[in-house]
Amino acid sequence: MFQIFKRKSLIAKLLLVAFTFAVSIGAGSSTPFTPNTSPSLLIIGDSITWGSDYFAKAQKLVAGDGQWANVVVDGQYSRRVAFPTPNTSIRMSGVKSYLKLKAAGLNPDAVIVALGSNDVAMESKIEVYEKIIRDLMDTIGNVPVTWLTVNRRDTKTIAARSVIFNNVLIKLTAEYPNLVLSDWYSVINSNLKLMAWDKVHLTPTGYTVRAKSYQSSAREIYERYWIATLPTTTTTAVTTTTTTVAPVVPAVTTTLPIETTTLATTTTIATTTTLAATTTIAATTTTVKPIP
Description:
Blueprint: H1 2-26, E1 28-30, E2 40-45, H2 47-56, H3 58-63, E3 70-76, H4 94-103, E4 110-114, H5 117-122, H6 126-140, E5 145-148, H7 156-172, E6 179-182, H8 184-190, H9 204-228, E7 272-274, E8 278-280
Parallel strand pairs: 2-3, 2-4, 4-5, 5-6
Antiparallel strand pairs: 1-3, 7-8
């Protein structure tokens, strides 16, 4: 009985190893979206991002908050940030994958970047890290970006490169004001059991924690998106000109009354007519009173 149990346990472990290996070399997906719809959030990453959606339903978790019209989780195995030299690959580059999604009608209003784990395995120079990060940031443009720091521990050398890569990210936040970091490195350091046997990928519990970190970042980045879309108030200085006008005083015309006095005129007309008899006609006196 013990041998049967032991055999089943071994088979289960082998299946887990085989599945993890399959994730690391052959997994990739991009959730559907409605083209030309806003606001849209893109979470772009590698196989760890793919596992976060496969195991922990990261897309449904973030979309459940109801803030974004589109929540696209695009994870691809072995995907790098970019290539320091020209490369025709699409699925292996965050830059080229972003451009492909744009061409399909996705216009992200904010982006969560979960890339770098494969770059620290391939590259070691600081100037290369700077170049590829700038390449993706310039491709994304002036929208809010949250970038998860890297913690890959499969070798001591790669673990050290993870720290260097994260320091470059910190440095470039000064160059890109729209860039904010999410400290995934510290999350792993505080609980190494979240990592799978290969020290690159995560356990199912680890993927759940990762999915919740996407949800937390999505809520924070939505606030930045919302603030960035507020209308701008422009204050225009108004110049006031004061003109002093001398008061116009109307001319005062004073007409003095002219007093007209008509004196009474007495006219005496004496008429003498000699008839058979002498008749005297009294003169009539007419007095004209002055008009007041």
